[in-house]
Specification:
By secondary structure, the protein is of the alpha+beta class. It has helices at residues 14-21, 78-83, 104-113, 117-139, 143-158, 174-181, 185-197, 213-220, and strands at 25-29, 34-36, 44-50, 53-58, 64-70, 75-76, 90-93, 97-103, 160-162, 165-169, 201-204, 207-210.
């Protein structure tokens, strides 16, 4: 898979990654559990070792907007901790998540001791750029193209390759997919049905199997 979202741990050395994990305590969250809530104080970060989460924000009309998914290797909640601000979004588990919880002060001390502020700044800029570019890209797409793009993103972040397919377990519901692309649930249901009829994917309860990634990429870029 290409164009994976940048992860903070990717910018650390192997020794720094091990040292970071040694700073916290093991934690385990069941599916559909809230790790951090938008607007709450930023007391710690969680480094994801296994599992996946979704990141959401509350719109002014009360609608939940799904911003992204994150998986193993991600550091959750770092922005609020490093800027000493409240949580900017809610993070909810989509599968069981096993990770390490690191208190805010300990993380900041680690960043200062390892002289990682330039790395953290670079990471923040890269992630913000990716987010802005994604928003601009989706704004120019129709529902079919947006849905294909988000399905490819899910395969990148939480998908597992099985017999040539990319399988997304504990996948987004149709309502969550709609919230992630700014479309109605009915519009998403129509496009999913077309994708199934075209043999590009199959769906089950909280499960999506992508059968033809090259065709989905062409769809996402408006080539079909």
């Amino acid at each position: 898979m290409d164009d994976r979202p940048v992860r903070m741990t990717d910018l650390l050395t192997e020794d720094q990654r091990r040292a970071l994990l040694a700073l916290g305590r093991p934690v385990r969250y069941p599916p559909d559990d809230t790790i951090f809530r938008e607007g709450a104080p930023s007391h710690s970060v969680v480094v994801v070792q296994t599992g996946s989460v979704k990141i959401t924000k509350q719109a002014t009309d009360g609608t939940e907007i799904t911003l992204a998914t994150r998986g193993a290797g991600e550091v959750l909640g770092d922005e609020g901790v490093l800027t000493n601000d409240v949580r900017s979004a809610t993070i909810t588990t989509t599968t069981e998540v096993i990770g390490v919880d690191i208190p805010a002060r300990i993380l900041v001390d680690f960043v200062e001791r390892e002289k990682l502020w330039p790395v953290m700044y670079k990471f923040a800029v890269q992630r913000r750029r990716q987010s802005d570019e994604r928003a601009l890209l989706l704004a120019r797409m129709d529902v079919r193209e947006r849905l294909a793009t988000v399905l490819l993103e899910l395969a990148d972040t939480v998908g597992v390759q099985v017999d040539g397919d990319w399988v997304i377990e504990d996948a987004f519901s149709q309502q969550e997919l709609a919230g992630s692309i700014g479309a109605s649930r009915d519009a998403v249901a129509v496009e999913l049905r077309k994708f199934r009829q075209e043999g590009l994917l199959t769906t089950g309860r909280r499960r999506i199997a992508l059968h033809n990634l090259p065709e989905l990429r062409r769809t996402a870029t408006g080539q079909v």
